[in-house]
Amino acid sequence: MARWEHSLDELVRTRGSALVGYAYLLCGDRREAEDLVQDALVKTFTRGRGGLEASNVEGYVRKAVLTTYLDGFRRRRRWAAVRHLVAVPDVQAGPEGPSADRVDVREALDRLSPRERACVVLRFYEDMTVPAIAEELAVSTGSVKRYLSDGVRRMEGLLGPVVADEPRPEDDPTSVEEIDVLTGGGER
Amino acid sequence: MKIDLEQALNDMARSVQDDAAADRMHGRVRQMVTIVRRRRAARHTAVGMVGVGAAAALAFGGLQLADVAVDEPVPPAAPSERIERFACGAEVRTTGISVTAPDSLDHEPTVMAGGSLQVDFDVEASDTFQTVGTPTYTVALVQDDLVVSDPVRIEGRAPTADAPTLSANLSVTACGTAAALPRGGYQVVVFESVEVGEQPTVHERLRDVSLLNVYGEAVPTPDPDEDAAGDENFSEEETAALITLNELVSYGNEDPTATFPQCGTTTDSLDDGMPPLALEMDLDLSEADAEGAFTGTVMLRTTEGRRVTGTANASGASLVLLRDGVVVGHEWLDPWDLVEFDLQDGEAQELPLLGARTLCGTGGTAQPPALRLPPGEYEAMAWLEVTVEEVAYPGQDPETVAGSSPAWSSPQDIELR
């Protein structure tokens, strides 16, 4: 078995479910989440780069999930072209039923634009700082703040006030107060 | 009651975590990666040789591998009839499902027409197959689903633990003759015939397929010191083929951090929010000089009524040429000097626009030497490296941004003649 196969096996076995969960937060559809992760895994493992260890490759896969999600049109086009070759019958329902809170949060996420949604997920699920999100999305920190501000505000329109995380100085040492407002901290 | 967003997102992510789904995904991904890796190997083969025209055919052949497979029970047949099934000129289907022993083939990726090719294949890589007797292997060169040269059969030989690899020498000549096969992309295929079950039925399975490029003449080595004359080594058709190849290679880009407008990237990676600055391009294609260099102007403006201060590359904006949405032409302009700007809403700063009709990744210190983009439909964009210092929305105080925030123009359809 080739090295990449070992790495792929281990990654999917140990982190496959978590990756699908992350993708699900981004796209809101279970089936599409699996597709996103599949596409990201294919992208990552076809690059043929050295050092493809499960322990260090997850970061690449997560980044690929994100860019693939934001790159939705191309992904759908590419995967649609080959899906029939490898597809199996549709996925079954998950082991857990949906809770009311989860449905609400999912609906609230569905109201966001792709980049707003990505910022919210990276901030509140991936626990990333504003500069890190900006780097990940290749946009300015100002854009991230705007996406976060708009995204959280729009979610609150459906959910009511949300408890977000504490503002972090590393987000932007020059404008801590602004972050506080952006993440809902100003209401607490 | 307030919803804890972090906790809610964690719960939501956990709600779809399912090991069975991960298992399903695993099999699909493994198959896809195998297919794509094989394509890429073929493309790299093409890059390593200079038969650029053949490279496109090879890459195209690689794409076709997405549908490879044969596993067809056929009526029991006498050995001689089985041989006929893969004889020269026989039609063999290599499209369908999947190969049974991927990556088990080994041979040189290129070969001179009329020469011979040693093909090794690892029989240990075969999957479990309950057989009666020993399998027969047929190694053949295939093009367009036809066997095009005399195949080699290895009958009744089972590999041993000491010798898990079988070998065949294929003659790269047309069926039944000593005439060299034409240059181009071919498939090397290995079929396996086995008898299965108590009432033996012959199963014929496609074990593996790989790509082979047959070249027909000595390959000229590009001279990096050659200037314009170097371009003449490549016809427009060949350059067009290289673009195709370039697009394919760029798909699985080696560099995960590649960003627009690097060669092979797409506009999809651009910020779909509203960047603070935008360009309007004024490009006159008729003004291209003899070397294919374009000049024009761009107007740098702010967006959404903002006031923006910063610095831009004083060399100006560069022209980006795309085909089918993929960057195929772009030259970096060295920011040897910067020009400061302070633009209010409605104001504009004029800067030069420079570009060349050259396939990106060629020319300069790169190999091969500069290739002229062939005639055809393209999209053109202007791209300017900018460092934004402050941005102010109307009626608001300026916000310090201090970061790279490139400006670009909308794509414009153009035709290169």
From TrEMBL, chain A:
Q: Where is this region: Disordered?
A: 162-188
The entry lists its GO molecular-function terms as: DNA binding; sigma factor activity
- State if Transcription is listed as a keyword: yes
Q: Which residues form a coiled coil?
A: none
Keywords for this protein: DNA-binding, Sigma factor, Transcription, Transcription regulation
Q: Which GO terms describe its biological process?
A: DNA-templated transcription initiation
**InterPro entries of this UniProt entry?**
RNA_pol_sigma-70-like (IPR039425), RNA_pol_sigma-70_dom (IPR014284), RNA_pol_sigma70_r2 (IPR007627), RNA_pol_sigma70_r4_t2 (IPR013249), RNA_pol_sigma_r2 (IPR013325), RNA_pol_sigma_r3/r4-like (IPR013324), WH-like_DNA-bd_sf (IPR036388)
Q: Which residues form the RNA polymerase sigma-70 region domain?
A: 11-78
Per UniProt, residues of the RNA polymerase sigma factor 70 region 4 type domain are 104-155
Q: Record's family?
A: Belongs to the sigma-70 factor family. ECF subfamily.
Protein known as: Sigma-70 family RNA polymerase sigma factor
From TrEMBL, chain B:
Q: Note down the stretches annotated as region Disordered.
A: 394-417
Compositional bias, Polar residues, is annotated for: 402-417
Q: Which UniProt keyword terms apply here?
A: Membrane, Transmembrane, Transmembrane helix
Source domain of life is Bacteria
Q: What residue ranges are annotated as transmembrane?
A: 46-66
State the name under which the record lists this protein.
Uncharacterized protein
The organism named in the record is: Actinotalea soli
